[in-house]
Design goal:
Blueprint (H helix, E strand, L loop, with lengths): L1 H12 L7 H6 L55 E8 L30 E8 L13 E8 L21 H10 L1 E10 L2 E4 L7 E3 L4 E5 L18 E3 L4 E6 L5 E5 L18 H9 L19 H4 L24 E4 L9 E3 L7 E6 L7 E8 L2 E3 L1 E9 L8 H9 L2 E8 L4 E6 L19 H6 L1 H8 L4 E2 L1 E6 L6 E5 L27 E5 L2 E5 L4 E7 L6 E9 L23 E6 L5 E5 L11 E5 L8 E4 L5 E4 L8 E6 L5 E7 L6 E6 L34 E7 L8
Parallel strand pairs: 7-12
Antiparallel strand pairs: 1-34, 2-3, 3-4, 4-5, 4-6, 7-8, 9-10, 10-11, 11-12, 13-14, 14-16, 15-19, 16-17, 17-18, 18-25, 20-21, 21-24, 22-23, 24-25, 26-27, 27-28, 28-31, 29-30, 32-33, 33-34
The structure holds MU-OXO-diiron (FEO) and calcium ion (3 copies).
Length: 712
């Protein structure tokens, strides 16, 4: 009823911009407080203040909050003097005309093309000018792009979880397809707080069914040919969008990670493929006779479903979806300021389990540099360097600028040497043996190299890492940080590795046992954060050390190598973000220390590469570590609700509003739908300890009660 009324009010009031207090009151509820209607079409928009840009300081600020204690509450716990509110959660309508979230799974599949998706993950805030363009320093009005990584089974979308049966229910699958992808939402800071502007003309969903262009060296390749685009120039959908990036010209980058969740391949398919194709499919985790966990292809013969089966069934690649697998794993560029623009899969940046793509600060006259990680055990860290050099006049030029900087350039993969030096190895067809003579996988051209970047990196002997997650570049000195979340495949230096097991090396040095209650966890259960400084004179050289080792405070000294204490001990770093002041934010996606605490977010003021020294890691491998953490340099800022991952970080340019995401609260619980008991009741539990509501992924807004800057 409120939605219908509000839709009427909205239509009537669009002309004068602004929504009545009555309508706002009717719309009370999570994520829908203080809504404003879009005023871009109004004849007299209210003038908005344009704050002066915050100057970048030479040194980072001091941490100025009381550390939050580890806990297992079903709440977001922030320091004293801070407050939180929910910006949006799974299923919230972004436009007028769709009903508000009902907490019963009754929302239609179709409506998820206009609702906030599931599994909030990476995100970025872009300031929005009065004229509707990118305004980097604007803090009170912006576009928040959020990844919706995946559908958190069994909660949320369906009336009572996923229906049983070998063949999936078509309506459920359709809803899941639309609940993946990206949301772009206008956000406004007003007296009552920061909220999503329902009905904004910028509000948009990009889903696992949205049409996209391929650009760069693999565009038009036979490897990308499908029934949908025989020429391999287009595809549909982005999926398992994990972390993200952004560009200096004001576009969003979203990265495709665990796309194997939705792609199957038939038994006997190998016999219908070339030997080379089979090598590529296996290297990317898709052996024949492999069923995806989500089984989308079983929902029917309609193209919306059939295309998730990456098997040979037609006469040629133009007749089936054998190449679906090759259409995922890319960096996708979206122009949030152009809601009708066609997203671009930028193939020059390579294809793998793309966690994210993080830019170095743009320098006029220098190339654009993007750092990237492949989040799987024993995979690699990559760097892309554009051919074109940065021209600040390209700010605001959207996908045209994207084509200029991201479609031509050089892709590298990292090798970390034991002495603290490192090398970027070039992944260019015709160089370093990356051609048809490569025995393991004969490369045809650069399109083949980027599509099979892992196989190219194998050939060059890059360093296999402990699951590269997020990266971030320090704005004060351009040093690059990347989380290595954990790795259960590291084995003792005395062991004989089998299968995908690896012995430790200097850059992934720890092997130890950590107990989770009575459960033994071996390898590198708590993860670490590596960092490097590029050589000023050479694009292919760098120096590295390990900034921080995750550990519980009472672990042995050769495990707790960074000297963590009760105010800052953590496990499995994942999200990472430098704000403009040079304060580093670290988030966890942990399953190792969760017997003691829910996942968390910490604030840090890091030093620099070389501020520590040599160390011996648990298991006997020598490494190079940064200076030990102290309560002054690393402090726990918040702890999340039950069974969640804390991920996604964005800060307004004035450093006064922090956004972060809670993903999959209560994911381990077995729901009792009739009794409405769930593993978590967050976000409802944030304000009502007795709430019996479904857990939902959501974006949280953090502010200081006194309106000051965050963290200081
Ligand atoms: Fe989706 Fe690598 O976390
Ligand atoms: Ca433990
Ligand atoms: Ca992640
Ligand atoms: Ca993770």
């Amino acid at each position: 009823m409120a939605d219908v009324l509000a839709a009427r009010l909205s239509r009537r009031q669009t002309l004068r911009g602004g929504m009545s207090v009555t309508a706002a009151a009717l719309l009370g509820g999570v994520g829908l407080t203080a809504c404003s209607s879009d005023d871009d079409n109004s004849s007299a928009p209210a003038p908005a203040p344009t704050p002066a840009p915050a100057p970048t300081p030479a040194t980072p600020p001091k941490l100025g909050f009381t550390a939050v204690a580890k806990n297992k509450n079903d709440l977001v716990t922030v320091p004293e003097g801070y407050q939180v509110s929910i910006l949006h959660a799974l299923g919230d309508p972004m436009h007028w005309g769709d009903e508000s979230w009902k907490d019963d799974g009754s929302e239609s599949a179709d409506s998820y093309q206009r609702r906030i998706g599931d599994g909030h993950d990476g995100m970025y805030y872009f300031g929005l000018s009065d004229a509707g363009a990118y305004q980097a320093e604007r803090s009170d009005r912006g576009l928040l792009c959020v990844n919706h990584e995946y559908v958190v089974a069994p909660y949320g979308l369906h009336p009572a979880g996923r229906s049983a049966g070998a063949a999936r229910n078509a309506a459920e699958v359709e809803k899941e397809i639309y609940a993946h992808g990206i949301s772009v939402a206008e956000v406004r800071r007003e007296t009552a707080g920061t909220s999503m502007v329902r009905g904004s003309r910028f509000n948009r969903r990009v889903t696992s069914a949205t049409t996209m262009d391929f650009t760069g060296p693999a565009r038009g390749a036979a490897l990308l040919a499908t029934k949908f685009s025989a020429g391999g120039t287009q595809t549909r959908g982005t999926n398992n969008n994990c972390a993200n990036g952004y560009t200096p010209w004001g576009t969003y980058l979203t990265c495709e990670e665990n796309f194997l969740n939705v792609i199957s391949r038939a038994a006997g398919d190998d016999a219908k493929r070339s030997a080379k194709e089979v090598v590529g499919l296996n290297r990317y985790g898709l052996p024949q006779n492999r069923k995806s966990p989500y089984l989308w292809e079983t929902a029917g013969t309609a193209d919306l479903f059939a295309r998730w089966d990456s098997s040979v069934v037609g006469a040629s690649a133009a007749d089936d979806y054998r190449n679906t697998i090759n259409t995922f794993g890319w960096v996708v560029e979206i122009d949030p300021f152009a809601p009708d623009s066609v997203p671009a899969k930028r193939t020059a940046l390579g294809r793998f389990n793309h966690e994210g793509a993080w830019p170095a600060p743009a320098v006029v006259g220098k190339p654009i540099v993007m750092y990237q990680g492949d989040d799987a055990r024993n995979e690699y860290i990559y760097k892309f360097v554009s051919k074109a050099v940065w021209d600040a006049a390209d700010v605001g030029k959207g996908l045209v600028a994207g084509a200029k900087y991201l479609d031509e350039g050089t892709l590298y993969v990292a090798k970390f040497n034991a002495d603290g030096s490192g090398e970027w190895l070039e992944l260019t067809y015709g160089k370093n043996g990356l051609d048809a003579t490569n025995a393991a996988y004969p490369f045809a051209d650069q399109g083949d190299v980027v599509t099979h970047a892992r196989l190219a990196a194998d050939k060059l002997g890059a360093t296999k890492m402990d699951r590269p997650e997020w990266g971030a570049v320090n704005p004060l000195n351009s040093e690059v940080y990347m989380t290595l979340t954990n790795n259960s495949n590291r084995v003792a230096t005395t062991a004989t590795p089998t299968g995908s097991q690896l012995k430790p090396d200097a850059a992934n040095p720890r092997y130890y046992e950590d107990m989770k209650g009575t459960t033994s966890q071996k390898g590198n259960p708590n993860g670490h954060i590596i960092r490097w400084r590029e050589d000023a004179a050479s694009v292919t050289k760098f120096a590295w050390d390990i900034y921080l080792f995750g550990a519980q405070a009472d672990a042995a000294a050769d495990v707790n190598l960074s000297g963590l204490t009760a105010v800052n001990d953590f496990s499995s770093p994942d999200g990472l973000y430098f704000d403009k002041r040079g304060m580093l934010w670290v988030q966890t996606d942990d399953g190792a220390y969760t017997d003691v605490t829910n996942c968390m977010m910490l604030a840090a003021v890091p030093g620099k590469v070389g501020d520590g020294g040599a160390a011996n890691a648990a298991g006997g491998t020598s490494t190079i570590k940064g200076a030990n953490a102290t309560a002054d340099t690393l402090r726990r800022f918040l702890v999340g609700p039950k069974e969640c991952e804390i991920t996604g970080i964005a800060m307004t340019p004035d450093n006064k509003t922090l956004f972060f995401n809670v993903q999959h609260p209560g994911e381990e619980g077995t729901p009792d739908w009739a009794a409405k008991t769930y593993g978590s009741n967050w976000p409802a539990s944030q304000t009502d300890a007795t709430a019996k509501k479904r857990p939902r992924s959501a974006t949280v807004v953090v502010t200081r009660k006194d309106g000051g800057e965050i963290g200081v």
